[in-house]
Amino acid sequence: MQLDERKKKIMQAIIRNYLETGEPVGSRTISKYTDLNLSSATIRNEMADLEELGYIIQPHTSAGRIPSDKGYRLYVDQMMEEKEREVEELKGILLEKEDKMDHLLKQVAKVLAQNTNYATMISAPQYHRNKLKFIQLSLVDAHQLLVVTVVEGNVIKNNILNVEEKLDSEILLKLNILLNTHLNGLTLEEINLNMITAMKQQAGIHSSIIGNVIDAIAESIKADEDLEIYTSGANNIFKYPELADNQKASELITAFEEKKLLEELVEERLADDNNTGIQIYIGDETPVKSMKDCSVVTATYELEEGMRGTIGIIGPKRMDYDKVVGTLKTLMHQLDDLYKKKE
Amino acid sequence: MQLDERKKKIMQAIIRNYLETGEPVGSRTISKYTDLNLSSATIRNEMADLEELGYIIQPHTSAGRIPSDKGYRLYVDQMMEEKEREVEELKGILLEKEDKMDHLLKQVAKVLAQNTNYATMISAPQYHRNKLKFIQLSLVDAHQLLVVTVVEGNVIKNNILNVEEKLDSEILLKLNILLNTHLNGLTLEEINLNMITAMKQQAGIHSSIIGNVIDAIAESIKADEDLEIYTSGANNIFKYPELADNQKASELITAFEEKKLLEELVEERLADDNNTGIQIYIGDETPVKSMKDCSVVTATYELEEGMRGTIGIIGPKRMDYDKVVGTLKTLMHQLDDLYKKKE
DNA sequence: GTTAGCACTCTCTTTCTTGGAGTGCTAACA
DNA sequence: TGTTAGCACTCCAAGAAAGAGAGTGCTAAC
């Protein structure tokens, strides 16, 4: 059943009011709040309908109504009026364009949390499909070999290997050339056993080193795959009584501490390649079960081709969706601008 | 005034009991709990004395007594019976000897939290006095110069610099030699302007690069100084009603999230060079003010000469001091064993 | 279709009551 | 002089009772 115009307006008024106050909304309030000029009795009738349709709930017989998950969903899908919203501090951060990715991400999470008064998370972009760009072996010590790996996007990884045999700079140079000519431009998946065997042959007596180096490279690139997640503002949940009781707060805090639990949120997003928009999970819809009393708004950002991460904002169901979505959209644009400009 | 033997026994009984139950302890309980064979009336008299001396407090007139901060202090200084306590899982972790220091530290924090049921923190060891061991410049791209810096303890830092001029491998080799001969073995503090000028002269037309490289090195080593702190088990505070009210919980969680606030704890410890033992802060004694209702037990660990960090355990004042101190001591020994063996 | 009016329900807050735990004091005892 | 039994007293915690307020659903009138 489609809602008629009036029901929609009432619904909207109920939600708006509840988002602000967190208290059940009564018919009298609506009667004054809207420009419908209807008496509270009429509103009551309409509200009874809306309740029957499942959009609102009465916590107990003589209380006002609060939106159900279905009601929020309606609001989010059809009634929201998000505006683009600048976050001044963010601009500053983004302009600086920190080369330390982790600093940048931590900052974004923090500013976002301060600005929205909700908890935030941000996952570091995933690089896994990237190509090897450069490999450098150097001797740090008589028996310690430093392996530096640079992949596209200028992500650098280091390993130190212990080696038995003595290596002079000449051999090192050869090995460097060997590795770079064979491997540069390849992704991890493209390196196969044939190549490795060929390289080992060419390396002669130093073949074992080649093996170790490749293992080290593979491992250090792999290590990046268990994904980094930064969070901020977890303490904001205490601002919302409906989340602040011990049981719930404890579960939520745990989720933010054991960032493993947040990965679901990221994976859900990145799995779907076309999904670059903003996703809203209300209550039970969220993939993280400790957040079943929250709403979660996520957005996927993309820095360069294939380098994508997820930003999430976690708050009570009566979160200010307009503001959150607006803020996220603006942030996405700013990130786009920043990284498109650069290229 | 010195406490006589009997008062001490009563004091100890009060604390032991309170640590277990978290409830005020009455005279009747003590009368049965101890082997003193005294009536509750006698105990009452003694307790009145202890209260006058400031070791115990009566929350209200008709309640039992609870230890004051001074009482805990007495217990901790004179009555504790810590036993060395193995933490089986820790052994496993330490034996593996992860080369990724951050993984290791996270794991230690986590296991310690699970084991004690308190919140834990661990600071990454500080390297700042360490010497430059190795510098390597390589060209990643036509205009991108990779600077790899290794300092003693095999801590590796990377930077990528954008350079205007074209550099060939011959020049690069020269610059590499120049940098390494001048700088290896020095600490950051020992590099002075004279050296830099000398190097720039020798570098001739590439002197600006030398300047940039040194800046990059300095910066990346500095960056390590804002110290890493890993935490775990913050949600454990919800297990102790005296910490779990919204106000306190929020402050504590904030401290664990904004790890900056925990730095005080680390600095307090590391400042004092001789202080390698275990330190207990009770209530107001703690340097972090949001923890004024907690007790904090810290220990300093040392991996290699000069590489020290701090481990902290944060719980309610009625924390099981014996267990916590025992566990920390054992952990220190295990770390010692591990790193002494290696050398 | 809308509205005024009214009885009804339920929660929240406040007040009062009661039971229990524990104390401090006194007086008796060894 | 130290220890103990006994008793009156205090205070909190939990429950019961009462009242206020908010909001509803229903009916009847417009």
Plain-language structure description:
2 copies of one chain form a homodimer. Chain A has 343 residues and is α+β, with helices and mostly antiparallel strands. The first copy, chain A, folds into 3 domains: 75 residues, Arc Repressor Mutant, subunit A (Orthogonal Bundle); 155 residues, Beta-Lactamase; 94 residues, Heat-inducible transcription repressor hrca homolog, domain 3 (Enolase-like, domain 1). In chain A, 46% of the residues lie in helices and 17% in strands. The first copy, chain A, has 12 helices and 10 strands. Chain A has a 5-stranded antiparallel sheet, with helices on both faces. In chain A, strands 4-5-6 form a 3-stranded antiparallel sheet. A two-stranded antiparallel ribbon of chain A has the order 1-2. In chain A, strand 4 and strand 5 form a beta hairpin. In chain A, helix 2 packs across helix 3 and helix 8 packs antiparallel against helix 9. The first copy, chain A, starts with a helix and ends with a helix. The mean pLDDT of chain A is 87. Chains A and B meet through strand 4, strand 5, strand 6 and helix 10 of A and strand 4, strand 5, strand 6 and helix 10 of B. The structure holds a DNA duplex (30 and 30 nucleotides).
Write the layout of secondary structure elements.
Two copies of one chain form a homodimer.
Chain A: H1 5-21, H2 27-33, H3 40-52, E1 56-57, E2 66-67, H4 69-79, H5 88-96, H6 101-116, E3 119-123, E4 132-139, E5 144-151, E6 155-162, H7 169-183, H8 193-203, H9 207-222, E7 229-232, H10 246-257, H11 263-271, E8 278-282, E9 294-302, E10 308-316, H12 321-342
Antiparallel strand pairs in A: 1-2, 3-7, 3-10, 4-5, 5-6, 8-9, 9-10
The structure holds a DNA duplex (30 and 30 nucleotides).
